[in-house]
Amino acid sequence: MEPEYHGDPLRPSEGILVFQIPGWDVLEAIRASGFSDAAVCYLSNPQGGIVGKHYTGIFVFVCQK
Q1: Which of 8, 9, 22, 64 could form a disulfide with 37 if both were Cys (CB 3.0 to 4.6 A apart)?
Q2: How far from chain centre, in Å, is Cα 49?
Q3: What is the pTM of this model?
Q4: Distance between CA 7 and CA 14 in Å, rounded?
């Protein structure tokens, strides 16, 4: 397949090479690697600086070993 690059704010002209595009099956992969639990949280907090020009928040993986 053709290489896929995502935006990189530090090197906008180059981008970042993507090796894997995870789906929701990433939680199963995390658990299979030895974590007892895994979840995804979406955080949005304009007062705390968790926003950007093109997005309203961030996804955070919360995992327990």
Answers
A1: 64
A2: 17
A3: 0.56
A4: 8
